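A quick aside before the break. I want you to see a complete sequence-to-structure record at least once, exactly as it would be stored in a machine-readable document. Don't worry about memorizing anything.
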Amino acid sequence: MNKFKLSRRSLEKLQKVHPDLVKVVLLAIQLTEVDFGISEGVRTIEKQREYFAKGASKTMNSRHLTGHAVDLAAYVGSEVRWDWPLYHKIVDAMKRAANSLNVPIVAGADWVKFPDGPHFELDRKVYP
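That is the input. The structure line, written in tokens, reads:
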């Protein structure tokens, strides 16, 4: 039995996220070697403009705007960590969960031009 579960705050951040992506996250938290929480689910257009202006996002067409994306934060103890090796393990859990549920996802860690380890989204080809 896995020792990790999502906090109430993380579950609240999933409320407006597409149900298929929520299912993937809920299974991944049971499969992961690294604890994680939801740092962001649905994002407002104002927040997206802010991220775009700061260079934290490369698009104004973010999947966060439609509930088709989540950002996850790795925890080591009670501390949020951004070390890439942690995110590779979370990516593995998310991909295993997605495959198990037959829900195609895209991991931002796989992007060549702007790798984004915490980011996961439903594949646009199946979820336009």
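Two observations worth writing down. The CA atoms of residues 68 and 127 lie 8 Å apart. The chain has a mean pLDDT of 94. We'll return to this after the break.
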